[in-house]
Amino acid sequence: MRRLFPLTADPTSAPTARPTSAPTAAAPAGVPLLGAPDSDREWSLEEIAEAYGYPPLGPDEAWLRANMVSSLDGAAYHDGASQPLSGAADMRVFGVLRGLADAVVVGAQTVRQEGYRPARARDAFRARRKAAGQPIAPAIAVVSSGLELDFDTPLFTDPLVPTLVLTGAGAPPERLARARRAGAEVLLAGEGAAVDPARVPGLLAERGLRRQLTEGGPRLLGQFAAAGVLDELCLTVSPRVTSGHAARITDGPALEVPADFTLESLLEESGFLFTRYRKVRRSPE
Ligand SMILES: NC(=O)c1ccc[n+]([C@@H]2O[C@H](COP(=O)([O-])OP(=O)(O)OC[C@H]3O[C@@H](n4cnc5c(N)ncnc54)[C@H](OP(=O)(O)O)[C@@H]3O)[C@@H](O)[C@H]2O)c1
């Protein structure tokens, strides 16, 4: 893996929490790594983790990062799964982003379609998580209104930390009871059956889950983007073309005004581009 941007000797260019002014796009002066002799070797999980640190957060602050993969022509899945777009380096980044997170927020359709399991405790992140005061694995937080989820699967019956279910107060009561019986912690984030996406980061932060990672899918991510609560997008551009009619990585109503993001870093391995963009927060007029 090699760093294409910024060209600096310092691989740890973590963004700062909720900046109020437009960031500078200029690369800091440093030693270009592109031509370095070992610039294309496989990075350790530790090195990738250094490159993807969350910004320092105050006790009440949350940071919602998304991690998605897209084909060159913009598809978010092929044959109903993201795996055909992914590759070895993408899976390493995926694992590292989980290893850094307090909670992984995911839409119910992705859970159903990709057969989500509980997050693993991985030795590579044990010391880092302990030092950061995190449990050994992130909690998976499933967003659903209908709660048509299989509560007999390990995601609910056998997680290392209890799986969360984010839903609305109007969700089917018998399914709510079923989720609780299965051991899930149910968080109500809406008056009807739906979750208000704008409430999700704060609700999780109240439980100490401030370093947040959403893995989509596109319909959920579209809502986070539209609600203006997406702080960071880690988008893998896969060197594959799929054509067809798959959704893009956000699938929902258009934003009234397109949201601006600024490039934090760009890594490359085997033709895959690992982009990391941070939302530009404008200071109030
Ligand atoms: N390219 C990538 O990186 C990537 C990442 C993840 C997934 N995927 C792919 O994307 C596809 C699935 O994505 P998707 O967009 O169809 O679905 P999704 O976003 O994963 O899940 C949609 C479901 O989430 C629940 N949901 C979403 N917003 C909600 C809200 N505001 N309140 C309550 N519940 C809400 C609903 O569940 P209920 O129906 O239970 O109410 C809804 O049906 C799969 O093919 C998967 O492989 C790709």
From TrEMBL:
KW tRNA-binding (keyword) present: no
Biased composition (Low complexity): 8-35
Pathways involved: Cofactor biosynthesis; riboflavin biosynthesis
UniProt-listed InterPro entries: DHFR-like_dom_sf, RibDG_C, Riboflavin_Biosynth_HTPR
GO molecular function, one term: 5-amino-6-(5-phosphoribosylamino)uracil reductase activity
Bacterial bifunctional deaminase-reductase C-terminal domain ranges (all copies): 63-259
Gene3D superfamilies linked: Dihydrofolate Reductase, subunit A
Keyword NADP annotated: yes
PANTHER family linked to this entry: 2,5-DIAMINO-6-RIBOSYLAMINO-4(3H)-PYRIMIDINONE 5'-PHOSPHATE REDUCTASE, DIHYDROFOLATE REDUCTASE FAMILY PROTEIN (AFU_ORTHOLOGUE AFUA_8G06820)
Protein name (record): Pyrimidine reductase family protein
